[in-house]
Structures are given as structure tokens and as C-alpha cells.
Specification:
Helix content is 47%, strand content 13%. The protein is of the alpha/beta class. It has two domains: 6-102, Rossmann fold (3-Layer(aba) Sandwich), CATH 3.40.50.1100; 108-280, Rossmann fold (3-Layer(aba) Sandwich). The strands form two sheets. The protein has a four-stranded parallel β-sheet with strand order 3-2-1-4, sandwiched between helices. The protein has a four-stranded parallel β-sheet with strand order 7-6-5-8, with helices on both faces. α7 packs parallel to α9.
Amino acid sequence: MECWQVCGSFKIRGLMNRLASLDATQRKKGLVAASCGNQGISLAYLGKLFGIPITIFLPKEADPSKIAKIQDHGAQTVLTADSIFDAGNQARDYARQNDRIIIHHDHTDVIAGHGTTGLEILEDLPDVEVIVVPIGAGGLCSGIGSAAKAISPSCSIIGVEPAAAPGAFRSLQEGVCCEGIPTKPSLADGLLGGPSPTTFSLLQRLVDQVVVVEEEEILSAMRTLLEAEQLLVEGSGAVGLAALLAGKIRVTDKNVVLVITGRNIGPQQWRNLMSPNNSERENPVH
């Protein structure tokens, strides 16, 4: 239930661990990151908490409600990129030109921080057989896979991502890193980035399978979580259930954990998506 984390997503785990490794001089320079939204919210929160200047680069199509949360925490936002891949390049250029510290999802400290999710899963359910993890850039899946397989090598790690951004799926299928893959709009906007060379190499060793889900399947999972469990979950957090409901993962008679990664979705978008008429629309993203 990472949707109940501080700032509404798992991102706080890895970012807190990364900040803990920085000394006072590095923090004082200020931190820069690229984000589809959730990483930006958590980093902005930590910046406000510790008095660190934060600049977040986001795609122009980023969720307005997530942008507002970043700004509410006092961080500077820059919305000039066409994709999260472009936002990452802009963030790195800005950090280099302004002597800032870049915070990236594939840093080992970030991945290790996210891996605490896997440690807690194995602590709560030692006989878990399958962990289903939303996958975009791959930091969370790499961290959980590293922790879980170190404790229980037979545990399967299954990544799930939207068909609108099949970066991890294609990378593992083709054996090459598809980091800058073109993407389409998706309810799972937090999963629109592909793996980096670092996370790709980890995913190759740690992930047993990656499946993709369609927008209608994501929407159905979001509705199911609301109706069956009274959980308001953003699209990125619902992709694991979407894959199960669509029969894309075969886990009959196994102990399965779904990682519900986040809850950050704007109220107006939520109302529109949950409208009974939405199921009849051709593209639930809009």
C-alpha cells in the first residue's frame, strides 16, 4: 500500500535515502530532477523539510494536480519538455550549468531506498511467490527485485506497464535499452519513462516477466479498487491489478503481492474517470 506513503507514493523511500547520502555543502547547492509528477512531489516535500532549493523539470503534458502539489511545497517547476526523456536531459543540462546536484531514478541510493519495499513484503509475507510491480523507469522494480530475490530467490518479479509506454517490455524483448521510446498519453502517466542503462541491466537479471496493459484495463482496475476496497488509486498504481483482471498474469494458487504505488490524481480527473459514461468513451485518458 505505497499509495499511503508520505506524499502519496513510494518515491519518498528512494529520495530520502539519496538525500541522506549528501553532505551539507551538496544540499546547499540545490537539487534538480526530472519527473512525471510523483518524484517531483516527494523531492519538493523533502526540500521544504530540510531547507534545500529544488527545481523539477516536467513534461508539458504533466498532470496539473501533481504540478500544483510540487509548487505548494515551494519547488520551482519547469515545463518545457515534450517527454520525460527530454525533461531528464534538460534537468541534467541545468544541473551542470548551475552547479546543482542531479537526482536521478537510477542512482544506487535511490534504488536501494525503493528496495525497502521488498524487504517489508518479505517480512510480512515470507512465503510470497509473486510480486507484481508497476514499471516505468525501473527503479522500484529493480529495488524490490534486488531485495526480494536476495532473501527468496524463487520469488518471481513481474513488471507491468501501459501499452502507451512499453519501454521495459521492449527492452527485455529486444535485449537493448529503450530509454527514449516514444510514448502516448496514459492514465498511468507516472510510468511513461523507459529504463535507463543502469536499471535495464538490473531488470535483465531480476525481473521474470514484463506485461503491458491497455487504457481500458487500467480504468477497470481503478474502478475495481474503488468499488471493492474503497481505494482511490492513480492509474500507475492500478496496472498490476489491471494485468491480473485481464488474465495477462497466471498466478493461480500462488501467494501474490500487488504493489499499489500511488494515489496522486486530481479530483476533476477522478470524477471524470469514475463517471458511468466514461466506459463508453473511446479514449479514457481524455
